[in-house]
Amino acid sequence: MALNMAPVIKSVELPGKVVLQYVEQGDVSGVPVLFLHAIADSWHAFERLLPHLPGYIHAIALTQRGHGDASRPEAGYRPRDFAADLLVFMDILQLEAAVIIGGSSGGIIARRFAIDHPERTLGLVLLGSPFTLKDKPGPRELWNSIISKMTDPVDPRMVREFAEDTLAQPVPQDFLEMLVQENLKVPARVWKATFKGLMEDDSSEELNKIRAPTLIIWGDRDAFLPLSDQKALTETISCSQFVVYPGGGHAFYWEEPVRVASDIVAFIEEIAD
Q: Which residues in the chain show pLDDT less than 70?
């Protein structure tokens, strides 16, 4: 049964006066499930998905540093930094372990956490997440042509195109507009530092260390990630299962939130048995 209550928006202060916003819903004694958004997004990236989770799941969607309405410190935008924030966040909320879910590049942060903190990772879910961006021509071209040249204020047209390119199916217009506005909150320096950190990330070389049960989902109309990328993830993470969404775009969790929620719940129930 889906939870129809609106998630409660809260905030927490990490050391160094970094304030992160998050939303929380469900039974606090239930299985903790932490959602990590992609570059330039915020907790709102999961706004369509959260209402379809049952109340017995303790769901938390975090806005990471530099994004949305979180603090924007000068440094700390590599995957390792975001994963370190997540550890402190879990300590503050007294979460012993959780299922970590990453959307798109948020999956790179989620898996970094799973590699570094296996005892705190109940399970791992990668939603349209790359195997690696290191040495890939597409991300390098995007960096050279657009990201590295970004200045404030960030160009709304670029942001809109960036969001629309992740879709293969329609989403409600008001939801897309909200996502664009969230992306526009991110300063150019954070776009640059975060993207650079993702391109330099080498966690793909350590994926064989992941011991947590892992669910990998990919849309077969993803304009950014080829099937070979997902096969590499699946083959390298020994305890993984792979699901393909026919017709799904890169951000299929915006397009098909009911199905994604259902698959996440089934995965959690499977690993909790």
A: 1-6
**Given this structure, which CATH class describes domain 8-272?**
alpha beta
* Separation between Cα atoms, residue 3 and residue 52, nearest integer Å: 6
Amino acid at 270: E
DSSP secondary structure string for all residues of 18-57: EEEEEEEES-TTSEEEEEE--TT--GGGGTTTGGGSBTTE
**Whole-number Å distance between alpha carbons of 67 and 84:** 16
pTM above 0.70, yes or no: yes
- Residue with tokens 């994604």, as numbered in its chain: 260
Amino acid at 181: Q
To the nearest 10 degrees (0 to 180), the angle between helices 106-116 and 79-92 is: 70
User: Per the omega criterion (within 30 degrees of 0), is the bond before 153 cis?
Assistant: yes
DSSP assigned state of 5:
S
Count of beta carbons in the 10 Å neighbourhood of residue 86: 25
| DSSP state, residue 214 | E
Show me where the domains of the chain are located. Answer: 8-272
Would you say 103 and 38 are in contact if contact means Cβ atoms under 8 Å apart? Answer: yes
Residue 27 makes CB contacts below 8 A (sequence gap 6+) with: 55, 56, 57, 58
Q: What is the pLDDT of residues 144-173, one digit of tens each?
A: 999 999 999 999 999 999 999 999 999 999
Tokens of 256: 């098909």
Q: Where are the alpha helices (DSSP H) in the chain?
A: 79-92, 106-116, 137-145, 156-164, 173-184, 188-200, 227-236, 252-255, 257-272
pLDDT given for residue 5 in this prediction: 59
Q: How far is CA 113 from the centre of its chain?
A: 12
Of 55, 58, 62, 60, residue with least CA distance to 4: 55
Which pair of structure tokens corresponds to residue 111?
């898996």
